[in-house]
Q: What sequence folds into this?
């Protein structure tokens, strides 16, 4: 973590503004705890379950915050986004609620449950091969061709501020946390929640978690600049990013205390634990911070830990393999 927040893409006031914009539209998601999880980890853990959010993930917060602010001309031409699934669903559902056309670019290996839901929310889907095509470049190309407004999955001030409202809710319900832990993809959730958490509690520790081979943010923090990694093969499809965001990374550098790294096997263990012991269905990316807790990666000094479960849109085919 480095000092200085004057030049960051969003402020605490922006997160509060997003909270007002989303009032009455987003679900105030529940917080779960588990005596067994507390005993296994030696701390109190509070899980903010965005799996119960509209579209099944936190992504709806940012998508609606951004799309609901478009002017009449932008609404008429529609929105375009790229995503492996959760941002896709958030954009599609937000556009549907607001009566706006939506196009979503999805990788060919996106979980079928997320593809089906995005289509059911009324979006047109265009597929691309993430091993051959850069989704971010492709979205800019299509946005220009179709004259649509681009809704970036993380590198967008309104997206970041919207995601930060999850931390506002968690800290309103459980104000005396020592640390806030969540998965890291492009950094929209981590950056937005870091702004929110530090705005409310400057002394709170904020941690991100990635998997081995998908640790672009950890590598970037260690190097002091954004690095680009090969396409990550991780089970956690929501964090298969090759580099942190241009807007999100400075926030992470300024406000995030550390990024932890665990394995895909740790994620599978966490998925099995949450399903069998807590009776909750969450997706691999949502299980990443739980895996860090079960693995003992979170520093022992943090006795009361808030975890943001990013989503619950797990592919049924993957769920079936957990006991194979």
A:
């Amino acid at each position: 973590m480095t000092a200085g927040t004057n030049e960051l893409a969003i402020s605490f006031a922006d997160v509060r503004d997003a909270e007002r914009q989303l009032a009455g539209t987003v679900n105030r998601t529940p917080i779960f705890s588990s005596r067994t999880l507390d005993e296994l980890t030696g701390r109190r853990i509070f899980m903010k379950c965005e799996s119960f959010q509209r579209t099944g993930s936190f992504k709806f917060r940012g998508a609606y915050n951004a799309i609901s602010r478009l002017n009449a001309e932008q609404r008429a031409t529609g929105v375009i986004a790229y995503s492996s699934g959760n941002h896709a669903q958030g954009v599609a559902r937000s556009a549907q609620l607001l009566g706006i056309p939506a196009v979503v670019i999805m990788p060919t290996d996106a979980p079928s449950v997320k593809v089906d839901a995005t289509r059911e929310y009324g979006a047109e889907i265009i597929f691309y091969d993430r091993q051959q095509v850069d989704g971010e470049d492709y979205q800019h190309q299509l946005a220009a061709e179709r004259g649509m407004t681009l809704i970036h999955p993380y590198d967008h001030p309104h997206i970041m501020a919207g995601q930060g409202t999850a931390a506002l809710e968690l800290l309103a319900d459980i104000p005396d946390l020592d640390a806030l832990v969540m998965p890291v993809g492009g950094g929209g959730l981590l950056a937005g929640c870091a702004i929110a958490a530090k705005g409310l509690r400057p002394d709170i520790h904020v941690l991100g978690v990635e998997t081995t081979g998908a640790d672009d943010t950890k590598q970037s923090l260690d190097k002091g600049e954004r690095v680009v990694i090969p396409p990550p093969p991780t089970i956690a499809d929501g964090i298969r990013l090759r580099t942190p965001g241009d807007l999100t990374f400075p926030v992470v550098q300024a406000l995030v205390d550390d990024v932890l790294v665990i394995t895909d096997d740790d994620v599978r263990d966490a998925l099995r634990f949450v399903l069998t012991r807590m009776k909750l269905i969450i997706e691999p990316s949502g299980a990443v911070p739980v895996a860090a807790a079960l693995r003992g990666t979170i520093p022992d000094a943090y006795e009361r830990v808030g975890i943001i479960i990013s989503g619950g849109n797990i592919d049924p085919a993957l769920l079936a393999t957990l006991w194979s």
